Amino acid sequence: ENHATPIGDAFREDFTKMYEQFASEGRRVIALCSKTFRAKEDSVFEENEGKYNFPTSDLNFIGLIAIMDPPRDNVPDAIAKCHRAGIKVFMVTGDHPLTARSIAKQIGLLKSDKNIELLEQHTSDSDWATCDGAVIHGSRIESLTDDQWRTILAKEGGVCFARTTPAHKLLIVEKCQTLMGMIADVTSLPEVKVPTDESS
User: What pLDDT was estimated at residue 143?
Assistant: First the structure.
């Protein structure tokens, strides 16, 4: 019999457990849900500045889809060559931190499990000075002090920024340039213009 069951604490716990399990395996996770409502026959559903012309609340949860999108085969070798050449490589992604961390380990970017972790609702207890790398959630980026930026960017065991926006990417580049004197480049920043120190 098809009927909606209210979401309770037990469901939320199971949901979080499965989500984190899939994400920690490097999978991108999508939740599916449904909503029955009436709309005009010629309706065009769209979003405008965060506002939708269709219902987005009181949805019925259907299930989770876990998608495996593995890195290209040549990525680990490319990362290793960069490291041997003295080039510091950061991962800057919109993926969930657990997904990003798993992929970063697969490609040899994160070298150990002993990392600074600044996640959305979790901060690791480890002494930053003893950590090899870092995993930083985008929501924590703007609150970092310059000293914290220097500590993170100096890590040799890999640095991964997750759940980032185009504005976060620009800020990361700026901090690399202004605090560390790094020559920073990014592979995809179509939404923002990265300043350079070109002289005429």
Answer: 93
Strand partners, 47: 52
Alpha helices, H only, 25-157: 75-84, 97-106, 138-141, 146-153
Rounded to whole angstroms, how far apart are CA atoms 179 and 90? 16
> Which secondary-structure segment (H or E) carries 65?
strand 60-68
CA distance 149 to 172: 9
- DSSP 8-state assignment for residue 123: B
pTM of the model: 0.73
| Nearest-angstrom CA–CA distance, 18 and 21 | 5
DSSP state of 95: S
22-76 residue pLDDT tens: 988 888 899 999 999 998 889 999 988 889 999 999 999 999 999 988 888 899 9
| The residue count for the chain | 200
CA distance 103 to 71: 7
Distance CA 47, CA 103 (A): 31
Query: Residue 12: in which H helix or E strand, if any?
Result: helix 9-24
